[in-house]
Amino acid sequence: MKIVNFKGILRLSIFLLSMGLLVNCSVDKVTVDEDDSISESDDNTSTDDDSTVTEIGENHEEAVDYIWDTATEVGIVLNGTSITVNGTGATVNGTTVTITDAGNYTISGTLNDGQIIVDTDDEETVRLIFNGINVTNSSNAPINIADAEKTIIVLKENTTSYLTDGSTYVFANGQDEPNATLYSADDLTIYGEGSLVIDSNYNDAITSKDGLLIKSGTINITSVDDGIRGKDYLYIMDGTITVNAEGDGFKSDNDVDANNGYIIIESGIFNITSGGDGISAASNVQIANGDFTIKSGGGSTSYVSSDSSAKGIKADLDIIIEDGVFNINSADDAIHCNEDITVETGTIALASGDDAIHSDATIKINGGSINITKTVEGIESPSITINDGEIYIVSSDDAVNAAGNTTNYLYINGGYIVITSSGDSLDSNGNMEMTAGTVILNGPTATNNSTLDYDGTFKLNGGFLIGTGYASNMEEIGSTSSTQYSVLVKLTSAQTAGNLFRIQNSAGEDVVTFKPQKNYKSIVFSSSSLSNGSTYSIYLGGSSTGTATDGLYSGGTYTGGTLYKSFTISSKATTVN
């Protein structure tokens, strides 16, 4: 996929569907038919599947990559301290085999303190078929793809291959590469139904200095530095990948070319434990789907210094999440980028030692289920838009905070939001606006924070909002420019957590019955049930036989409460003292 600067692209699906590439050609005894299916004319032909493939980089992936004639395979047998080549295209020197010609090479056996090198000027593909190999090298990379137009590593079905290096590399002629257990100076593809296990003791486990594509396979990595690194890009189509890295888990770090340095993940199962960032890109991270378990920097209870980074998912530009299941436990921000974050849907569980979702530009949440169980600030950006989704936040500071710019704005246009915060529940260093959705706020009990905190205006133009606070002298309410009525009740004495708060109309009908999770001294409430000129009564305490969801009761009968005060709505913002 040839990436241009895709700043502002909001949907990964558009990006992916527009990049289809199908090659009509003949390769040995295999053809790709016009109906997009692969036809075999010989039983020895090996194929991956008959699907249309996606263009990754210029000629990085083509349909013929996964089609070859097994009769052309050259066998390389590793015999511990010797190597046998059954064919041409590779030479042996002791425990080193060097592949000099493009072609298909099936490798099997064990190699003690040896190396497989690819070094060819051919423009055709080198295909390395791992048929259960075990290669160790105490002083260099077990696999060194020094020069090749494109290399494809095939993990043969029902096999497991092992690569292990030493903690020190010996270089010739002042070189400083290879710097990974599995190293490629050029485009690299890994795929197959087999497994690959890498124990990296010197630097990275898998590195491509160009683009790295992982199409499938089971990969297990332990690394003293980064786990999987594609300098220009890392594109993962599928697979089951486990990384335990002291550095970053997945990484793309080309920060020179604006069209590179990105990570795209279509699907797969990923378990990442990292000392640094779980997933880190110099430009963009785009995720279509997948199941992610990420623990970075020791998790949310750990400390990370200001000059270190231990974020769950990090991008210097944009992050787009189309779908997926995410369980992120990070010492630093769980999801962080310098520009725009877009969440379309997905099931996202976050615990963070700092912010849960942070962007320096914009955050847009269009759907999904987000559960933030531990964080300092939950969602923070100069511009935050929540259009839909189910969001739960427990924060030690502000739960949703629009801050960081000269113009800050919080928009709530839908969704279901439940907040328990020690700082401000909803905060904007500018304006706020709510047009739809349900917002339930169990606000701070300290006197230096409030349920609602905004510097400009808060237009309550729709939706349902209820929130508790304690610093009644600091509490705010919807602006008079709102189209929907709101009320702020400042109680004369504090109420304990669980003590019901109820508003009913003049006919005794329930407007809201709420069971706060925290001690409270003030309540802010807005819904379409409030109307101008109508009189309402406030009750405290009592009980309800209704069904409680996140403290809100529906149905049932309310009894036993004490009438606190009655009030009449006379303006868009009414305060009851």
Automatic annotation (TrEMBL):
Biased composition (Acidic residues): 34-52
InterPro entries: Cthe_2159
Keywords: Signal
Signal peptide coordinates: 1-23
A family per Pfam: Cthe_2159
Region (Disordered): 34-53
UniProt name for this protein: Carbohydrate-binding domain-containing protein
